[in-house]
Amino acid sequence: FHHVKIEDLLFSLPLPVALTDGEGKISYVNQKMEIFLNRSLKYLKGKRISEFFKNREGIEEQIKKSYTELLEIFGFRDGNYTLSFAPLYVSSKVEGVIVIVQHESNSPFEK
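^ that's the sequence the OP posted. Answer follows.
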């Protein structure tokens, strides 16, 4: 694990994951997120995450202000999903947002 690249780690995750920059624009998505959104990283890069998850406008700014994780359940295609937003810290400063999508049937946040 001495020289693991962040992209390799995110690519290996079994869940759809996206990273945004400080302006809320997508800087990276793993292959699972590409499949989930049916869009390539090339297409997604530079767009706001809220463009793909409706009614989430301003979510990036809300997270940066509160420095906390937000969880939401939403309907999408074949079921309900948990959408997790968390601040992305770089050198103790919030530099963006981590977005993780999980099918509700597999979610640890189920009620």
